[in-house]
Specification:
Number of strands: 10
Low-confidence stretches: none
CATH architecture: 3-Layer(aba) Sandwich
CATH superfamily: P-loop containing nucleotide triphosphate hydrolases
Strand order of the largest sheet: 6-7-8-3-9-10
Largest sheet: 6 strands, mixed
Helix content: 25-40%
Length: 230
């Protein structure tokens, strides 16, 4: 089952002599339950692509189809609601709200969407995140790895079809990185949630089931990874 279809996606920054083609006719199809790593050097277009897949920026050309809907034909309001329902975001810089507790940060997307999350569902998620004793703590009281787990919980709370992760372990030590990777693998396997992750860490990319390599705004390699989850 296809959850994402991207066709002829282009993004241009600047004008005239300063024009820069950040994405050059990108086309990809993603099936439900895939775990995709996007790799490439800085400036290759990885994060730009991820932002366009999530509706955080607008392309100059091309289409992004999620759940059979072209997200760039939606109004800003429609797109905001759509993102909350179908897409979960995990960033390198956790983007937690300092004045909210761990519990409140995790529940934020559901609250915005007017959804009631059962105590059982929340407890199951928080236990898996290893944060059951941190529910009333604030972000500044947590380690970097704990903050990133809160961010992952926030991304997962609405059970979105797609998780977009931009360098999710970029600021973490080795131990925290392994914990985050195992969490992503768990939800990918158990709930068949589709994960698209940008990373510079090739050892992390090898945990994915599919690796897309970018250079100069183009996909130069797209291959299945038979050694994933080893």
């Amino acid at each position: 089952m296809e959850v994402l279809n991207v066709s002829d996606l282009c993004k241009i920054y600047g004008k005239g002599e300063n024009e820069f083609l950040a994405l050059n006719n990108i086309s990809i199809k993603v099936k439900k339950g895939e775990f995709i790593a996007i790799v490439g050097k800085s400036g290759s277009g990885k994060s730009t692509l991820l932002h366009l897949l999530g509706g955080l920026d607008k392309p100059d050309r091309g289409n992004v189809i999620i759940n059979n809907q072209d997200i760039y034909k939606m109004s800003d309001k429609e797109l905001t609601v759509f993102r909350r329902k179908y897409i979960g975001f995990v960033y390198q810089f956790y983007n937690l709200i300092p004045a909210l507790t761990v519990k409140e940060n995790i529940l934020l997307p559901a609250l915005f969407d007017g959804r009631k999350i059962s105590d059982k569902k929340l407890e199951e998620l928080v236990k898996k995140l290893g944060l059951i004793n941190k529910m009333d703590a604030y972000p500044n009281d947590l380690s970097g790895g704990q903050q990133q787990r809160v961010a992952i919980g926030r991304a997962l709370i609405n059970h979105p079809k797609i998780i977009l992760a931009d360098e999710p372990t970029g600021n973490l030590d080795t131990r925290s990185t392994k914990h985050i990777v195992k969490l992503l693998e768990y939800y990918n396997k158990k709930y068949r949630q589709t994960i698209i992750m940008v990373t510079h860490d090739l050892s992390l990319a090898k945990r994915a089931s599919r690796i897309i390599t970018m250079r100069d705004g183009k996909i130069i390699k797209d291959e299945m990874n038979d050694k994933s989850f080893s």
